[in-house]
Design brief:
With 267 residues, the protein is mainly alpha-helical. It has nine helices and four strands, in the order H-H-H-H-H-H-H-H-H-E-E-E-E. It has a two-stranded antiparallel ribbon. The chain has a two-stranded antiparallel ribbon with strand order 3-4.
Amino acid sequence: MSTHSAVLALISYPLLANLPPNVIRFRWGFKRGLAPMPPDVEAQAEAADRTALFVIYLVLLAVIIFFPRRSSIPAYAIGLTTENWKSGIAVGGLLGCVSASVGAVLLRSVAAPDKLQDIPESRGPLATWCGLTVLASLSVEFWRVFCIVTLVRFDFSAWLAVMIVAVAYGSANLTRSTASALGAACFGGVAGFSFVKTGSLLAPVVMSLITAGTYVYRVRHVSLRKRADAASSAVTCPVCKANFDSAKAKRSLTFLTCPECGEQLHV
């Protein structure tokens, strides 16, 4: 495998993760600037976001499948073997649980419950996000393992190869925030080390599936609970027909005051 092909494989994920634009969001921003989208346009834009993610991971998987077929790297070298599948699943499961726990703590400390509803995974069909989670785990970990093996074949040490690929993985998140890029790089380093330790692709794939699946579950669970609480506290005034949050309205032991017309409603 040539040096140019190895570099192309290494940068393929950062490029794919940052190049595809959302046509709906681009068109709205070009015409309306920073004006908020109406709900129907926002729903179309979010559907386009999910489609773009599907295309990104599918293309990445196709690219990484193409490179081993054109190179002399055997399947067992990139972890496609049944010899260490037990240790691969065990190590991946253990690291996945640790990663999911750390992610839950960080999510709880950084993002308020109200902010979780702004995360894309909190909306849209659950089946779509489950499919995207599986596809992303397979394609990204396949890319990670292939890049590590390729760098090792160019006489890089295994640990240095893992760190280089982890930095490339983290760079794909620089457009979001520096903290996201650092977190992704740390996750990539652990996932790469799990492959080097076990020699099985199952280790990073299982780790990624557990981490991403737990993240999607937590975001959706907290978001749905928040929406249910908001719906249960919503009150409609029978006089002025105004809708308001009962938890924020002025109240006494037996009465609730409408903030629009001042009508006192029995609790």
